[in-house]
Structures are given as C-alpha cells and as structure tokens.
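Holo prediction — magnesium ion.
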Amino acid sequence: MPELLLVKNLRKYFPRGRKLLRAVDNVSFSIDPGETLGLVGESGSGKSTLGRTVLRLLEPNDGEIIFDGIDIRRLKGDDLRQIRMFMQIIFQDPLASLNPHMTIGQAIEDPLIIHNIGTKEQRRRAVMELLDIVGIGREFIDSFPHEFSGGQQQRVGIARALALNPKFIVCDEPVSSLDVSIGAQIVSLLYELKRQFKLSYLFISHDLAVVKYLSDKVAVMYLGTFVELAPKEELYGNPLHPYTRALLASVPKMPKNGGRQRKFPALKGEIPSSVDLPSGCRFQSRCEYVMDICRREEPIFREVSPGHFVSCHLV
Ligand SMILES: Nc1ncnc2c1ncn2[C@@H]1O[C@H](COP(=O)(O)OP(=O)(O)OP(=O)(O)O)[C@@H](O)[C@H]1O
Ligand SMILES: [Mg+2]
C-alpha cells in the first residue's frame, strides 16, 4: 500500500539573532493510510514545529512533503486550500483554538463554510452528526466554548477537525491540558475515530503510555531530529538509543490519578542549544556511553531491522 504521507529530509529553521535555530533538522518518515505515528521528546525538541511544517502551516526550509502522492510544497492558493481539507490539526489548548464569539455549532460549521460545502440546511445536519460522533449532546449546538469543560472543548476541536472528512490529523498534545480521566476519554475517542474513519495521525504527546496505546509506530525526537523510529512493540520492547531508554526508564510505574501528566524528568547533563549544536552526536553531552567517535561524527539515522531506525554509534 502506498504511504499516505512521505516526509523526506525536512528542515525548519527559525532566525535567532544572526544565527539559525534548527527546530526541525533533517527529519524523514512515512505514515500509511490508517496508521498512527506517535511522536515523543522533551519540551523544545521540535515536535510542534514538525507537525505544523508537515501541514505547511509553517514553510519548510528544505525537504519533501508528499501527501497522497502530491508534492504539497509545490502547491499554492486554491490547490493548497484543497489539500488542507484532508490534513487537519488538533491543538493542546482547545479553548485558545476556538473563537470565543462563535457558538459550538458555528465553530464546527466554519470549515464547511470556508470550503463552500453544502447548503445551510445540509451543513446544519452535518454539524448535528459531528456532535453525535464526538459525543456532545445536540442541545449544546448554540452554547459557547467558555460554557464547556476542557474535555468538551477538545471534543469541539475534534469535530471541527473532522468536518471536512480528513485523512490525516496532527494531534499536538491533545490531552496534555486535561485531567487524566478526561484525557483518557478523549484518547479513546481518538482511537475510535481512527478505526471508524481510517484516519492517520501524527500523535504528539509527552505521555508514553498514551502514545503506546494509540500508535502503530513511534518516533523519538531530540533537538530537532529523530534519534529512533520503530514499530510500537519494537520501540517499547527493544529500545536501542540511550535517549529512548532514558525516556522509557523515566515513566512512572503507577500514574497518579487526577494529576496532570508529567513531563519527562530531566536527564543528566546539559542540553545543547539548537542554535549551537555540537559537532558529532547531539546527545553526547547527556549520554552515559559517550565515545570518542560520538564527539567527531554525527551518527547516521539508519534502518537496523525492518522499520527500526536509530542514529547511534553504539548500534
Ligand atoms: N515561531 C517560532 N519562532 C521562533 N522559534 C520557534 C518558533 N516556534 C518554535 N520555536 C523554537 O523551536 C524549538 C522547537 O519548538 P517546538 O514548539 O516545536 O517544540 P516542542 O517539542 O513542541 O515543545 P513542547 O513539548 O514544549 O510543546 C524551540 O527551541 C522553540 O523555541
Ligand atoms: Mg509542542
């Protein structure tokens, strides 16, 4: 089956003074139809930037993005708008992503209006169906976002993302701002939707347990680049990169109920800046196995077993 999304050597840099901050630095991956790629990594590693750049909400500096066989970096204007129907995003903070002056119904109908889809009557029906799908009572159609709880707001965000029948959704920490139990309900909803509509996700999260549950394969990002990518069972069962191992080791065995999700505890050693990356491996300053070669040569991200990629001189 041809992949739905193919990303090759993607780069996104931000100017920082007279230098460049390499937020996404040579990232390659693919996602098949109906497949979910989980994306984990510490704060600032470039996960959101990657998600936005793939959707061309940010312009890449370099690399290829092929969606459904189309090179979307070449698209402009109407063509880009067309393809955007099939690529959506769900944000961490649902309230901030909703217009406070629009009712729930208007918010969900909005993408249909923008894309000129259906009559008013047809759109109203579509909105009702979307409310059903995401588990919001139809009677709330004229409510405003601030009248809703965080979980309900996120359901609206999901309904909005679904309105145009997308094939691919970037989920950027969609449950990180929610209490654990509410977040778990949203995670099950996302799981159900992916099955029902054969959706592909790029699922960004700090929560390794959630990522394990939702993903088919998982990528680990460090300072703008992938250090490891593997099928889920392989990544959790046989992690090869010292950074991946450290992340997995830091997962608390018993998650505390009711609390917010924890970010990974800091590993030892200093994190270099994405503006001044060291020569060699970018994980060297925190790696307990560091060798001479790690300071000299940047390890190549290579496939060590089917679908299992890692960039480490140890492997
Ligand atoms: N619009 C921007 N302009 C300049 N720098 C940016 C911009 N967006 C992100 N960055 C920088 O790019 C790097 C990656 O940020 P990004 O938000 O993608 O990380 P993240 O992995 O999503 O982090 P978090 O887990 O905190 O959400 C950071 O150093 C950040 O400061
Ligand atoms: Mg982010």
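READOUT: The radius of gyration is 20 Å.
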